[in-house]
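Hi there,

I know you've been waiting on this one. I reran it after we fixed the sequence typo, so this is the corrected version. Both the input and the resulting structure follow.
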Amino acid sequence: MVPEIVLELVKELKEKYPVTLICECLGIPRSSYYRWVKKGNKNMTELELKIKEVCTKHKYRIGHRTVKAWLLREYKIKVNRKTVQRIMQKYNWQCRVKPKRKIKILGESKIIVPNHLKQDFKASKPNEKWVTDITYLPFGQSMMYLSCIMDLYNNEIIAFRIGLSQEVSLVLDTLKDELDNQPETKGVILHSDQGSQYTSYAFQNLAKENGIITSMSRKGNCFDNAVIESFHSTLKSEEFYSQPQEHLTNPIVVEKVRNFIYYYNQIRLQAKLNYLSPREFREQAA
C-alpha cells in the first residue's frame, strides 16, 4: 500500500479508532506506519512542523492569521502571515470554508420592540449588550436546537441551552441561567430577532422584570444580529462540517457542542480581541 495513502487514512480515522487497530485493518505493521510518519516529518522544516502541531491541535479549524498568532504565543516564533499561508496551502492544512447560512423563517409576532442595538456591536464593559438566537442542530438521531446568549463586550457565550424543540421554554431557560449568574441586570440591552419565542409575552415579561431592555432586529434583516449568527455558523462549520462524517447520537452532539463552546470561550483566539480568547480578554480587562 502507498505510504501517502496510509498516512492520510490514519490521519482521518485516528480521532475515532486506535492507530494499532487501523493498521491491522489495512494489513500493515504499526512499525511501518510510524516509520513513514518519521520519514515524512524529516522532510519538513522546523517551522512546518510547528505549524502542523498548531493545525492538528485545533483540528484544522483556524486560518493562517490565527496560526501565526499561536506560533508567536506558544513558540515565540515571529513569521510573516503569507509564509504561514503558503505552508498551509502546501500541505492542505487550511480551514474549511463556512457553508452559506440558510434563510430563517420568522415566527408569529406578539410583542415587537424597537431595534436599540442598530448594528452597533461594540460594548465598553461586560453586561452592557447581549445578543441571543436559536439555531438548528441537524447532526444527531433527531433535530435539536441550540439557544445561546452572547456578551458583545468579549463575544463570550455566557449562557446556552440545547433542547428537542424550539418552544418558548428553551429561550426562557437560557435567560434564567444567565440571570442566576448575574444578580444585577438593570439596563442591559438584550437583542434578538423577531422569532416567536422572543416576541412572546413570557420572554418579554421575564426580561422586563429584571430590568433588561429588549431589542429586536428589523424583520428579515439577518445583519442586525450578525455576531451571534456568525458564532452559530462557526460552531457548525468547525465542529461538524469540517470533521469526517460519522453517525452521531444526540448525546454525542450535545457533548460536541459543549466542548466547542468551552474551546470558543477559553481557548480560541479572536482577532478583534487582540488575539486573546473571550475569557482571557475579560480577565485581562478586569
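Quick highlight: Strands lie at 129-137, 144-151, 156-163, 189-192, 213-216.

Best,
R. S.
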